[in-house]
Amino acid sequence: MRSGGNQHVRVLRVVVAVSLGVALIASACTDDSGTEWAQPPSTANAPFTAYGGIGQATVVAAAPGTPIVLEDAEGVEVANGTADAKGSFIFRELTPGSGYRVVSSSGEENVRTAEFRVLDESDTPPQSFYDSQTMVEGLNYIEMRDGVTLAATLRLPPGAEIGDGPFPTVIEYSGYEVAAPGDLLASFTGGAPDPLAPGGATAVGSVVTPVLGYATVSLQIRGTGCSGGDFDLFGLPTVYDGYDAVEIVAAQPWVKGNKVGMVGISYSGISQLFVAGTRPPSLAAIAPMSVLADLYDGVGFPGGIFNNGFAKSWLTERQQDARPAPEAGQKWAGLLIEQGDTTCERNQGLRLQTRDVLELVDQEPFRNPTLYERRTPLDWAKRIEVPVFLVGAFQDDQLGGHWVNLVEALGDNPSVWVTMYNGNHNDALGPEVLPRWLEFLDLFVADEVPEIPPTVLALAGGLYGSIGSAAAAPLEQTRFAGTGDLEAARSTFEADPRIRLLMEVGAGPLGPRSLQATAELDYDEWPPPGTEPSTWTLSADGALVDAATVDAVVEGEADYVADPAARPRRNVGSGGVAYSADEPYDWQPVADGKGLGYVSEPLAEDLLVAGGGSLDLRLSASAEDTDLQVTLSEVRPDGRESYLTSGWLRASHRALDGAATTETYPVHTHLREDQMLLVPGEFVDVRVPINPLVTWVRAGSRLRVTVLAPGGDVPLWEFDTIDDGSTTVSVLHGPDVPSRLVLPTVPATPTVTPSPGCDTLRGQPCRDYVPAGNGG
User: Fold this and answer.
1) CA atoms within 13 A on the CB side of 609
2) Phi, psi angle pair for 551, to nearest 5°
3) 204 within 8 A of 265, measured Cβ to Cβ
4) Range of the domain at 507
5) What percent of the chain has pLDDT over 70?
6) Contact at 8 Å (CB) between 364 and 253?
């Protein structure tokens, strides 16, 4: 075990904290005045300062209400504004280059700043900029390329001192309360709650990795907590802050090998994809968990419909976090300011420049390239060259299953290992994942033979259940413990299949919804070799007709009323969660006349579905637009129905991205200029994407797909739908009509375990099968 992990009593305490942390995953003191290497200090006659960042220019220390004008190198006005109550203003979306300055009128004369440079992504500081910064244990403020300082808390292994290094080192980069310098361990182990403890969602870096012997830098995203700058969700300054932080941390003498990794779940998992895409030279590897592939289509606007459940509440919380402390914002920042942290106080100076994300969402319901072009993890993932360990659930209750599209985006990187499973957002550190995760970090960041301390093994498995209200498989020692041969261990890991599928988690012998899979499938590529499209044609009588019997399709129309009020908005009750073994779902059947269902004949043999699907519809509506929710399920021989996955589309967003769309999975542009309103009563062809998954549908079961207004099929998402119960939607059917279900299937992949009981699978509720009004 690395430094700090060899004391029995301490490890016992720490193991308890690790398990609790898993369950909760639900100093340069400069001001914001620019960086010397990037632009000279202001020497002109303005009483305020202006400096450049990536694609933007910032004014600080102006008198509130001062009118200011940004001029380019030719003296031409580029933009203007007014200093806010803190004397600040930010000009955005600027063309990089030199010669910018800010001018303002003062009585009869104009005052102006010195010229400065607006930075480009390629404007990387010299190595001396990184080498000159020193970090100590606890809270630090590290300087970014534009002069903004970020709060960064160094957490050492328990009992270790900085002189005991060098340590293998990782960064957790988040906008949650990640850099709060207190002790989360004490809060978890029954001690007095620490008001300066980081948030439980950051426990991967603040608890787990230190316990396993890593030094962890908890890095606070700009515009949140005690970090300077303004909050701009995954804007370029934020992305390249990650680059700078990697290089600053790697330059520290206590960092083993002067290379660092990145860890984290959710927010701090997503940030890794952006930062790794910038290719910092000192980044060793990343291990993102429970992430998304696209801010728009993945969770913000699934199918072009605003998610005013989880997405709205999450954005609202981020907006609140970005407000200036101590009056608002994150509590730990306010406490430090009250205790005399002048750097944290000074770093609140740009908070009033934070853009109102919810207002932007309201103003722009389409995929505006200006907002999303550089904020798409899928695009950054294509640039990643370091080893990646990616983990996620198909039914992720917070971020959905769209994230699986990242796997193909990472396809050109030979060192990517992906673990996928049915389940929920916080299942990512389950006992069947954690050992492989640690192996990856030890081999590619620590450069050591992986081994989990025996005391951790003895306690952690049982604590998963007591914390998560569900049983868990025992935590197993790594394959390599005691071998002593690093290169052999690395070679063995590198030979592992790239795709690991944990099948039917929750149906194991430990009991319903346990953190235990019943089987594992492994592949070296994604989609799995031999994957082919399978097609079922929709029939007017509610049948799903396979290709071999397409002549049995009944022609005609089937109608439903798009009424989101016909069912609950979510499939869990008020305040319910999707994690516990005994949490009752409220997954209601399709209300009569308020949706359509289509069900196949019992399957003659086992079917493995692997990837995203498509429901192709020839439809019309009585209004100019309508929102569609499509849900795929399995109807079992016992008459019960098990949830598989869903997809959404606003009909006017049906324009396809031809380059990205496949036979099995449609991708839409969602551009304003591509909007196509319906002509009431006229039929059009619409392809609704179905989120990716991997699942067995056993012989004797039937596939079912439903179409209705959005809502009621997932735990945390709600929808700002345009439907209100006044629109009738009609679907056209016939042997030659392109109304069909298309799924990617892998032939000759029989099941190896018995069929799971209904309502036992994590993330997959079950209900009695009730046919829809059209018979399916």
Assistant:
1) 27
2) -65, -15
3) yes
4) 10-26+125-468+476-523
5) 90
6) no
pLDDT in tens, 632-650: 999 999 999 999 999 999 9
In angstroms, the Cα distances linking 601 to 69, 548, 636, 700 are 70, 12, 11, 9
| Helices marked H in 25-166 | 127-131
Q: Identify the sign of the CA torsion 554, 557, 558, 564.
A: positive
3-state secondary structure of 443: helix
Question: Given the structure tokens 């960086």, which residue do they identify?
Answer: 35
Q: How many whole angstroms separate alpha carbon 136 and alpha carbon 317?
A: 31
Residue 577: pLDDT band by 50, 70, 90 thresholds? low
Answer yes or no: is pLDDT of 20 > 80.
Answer: no
345 Cβ contact partners less than 8 Å away, ≥ 6 residues apart: 325, 337
List the structure tokens of 582. 């005994």
Q: Are 425 and 269 in contact, with CB atoms under 8 Å apart? A: no
Cα 746 to chain centroid distance, Å, stands at 28
Q: In whole angstroms, what is the distance from residue 768 CA to residue 639 CA? A: 6
Question: Can you tell me whether residue 2 is helix, strand or coil?
Answer: coil
Q: Answer whether the bond into residue 166 is a cis peptide, omega within 30°.
A: yes
Predicted local confidence at residue 14, as pLDDT: 37
Quick one: which of 238, 232, 223 has its CA closest to 278? 238
Dist CA 262 CA 271 (whole Å): 9
Please choose, from the candidates 455, 453, 437, the residue with its C-alpha nearest in 3D space to the C-alpha of residue 445. 437
> Coil, strand or helix: which one is 168?
strand
Q: How many domains does the structure of the chain reveal?
A: 3
Tally of residues, the chain? 776
What is the three-class DSSP state of 78? strand
Residues in CB range of 397: below 8 A, 6 or more apart: 310, 424, 425, 578, 714, 715, 716, 763
- Do 148 and 245 sit in the same domain of this protein? yes
Structure tokens, 2: 């690395």
178's tokens: 């990640």
CATH value at residue 689: 2.60.120.260
Based on the fold, state whether residues 552 and 660 are members of the same structural domain. Answer: yes
The answer to whether 722 and 627 are in contact (CB under 8 A) is: yes
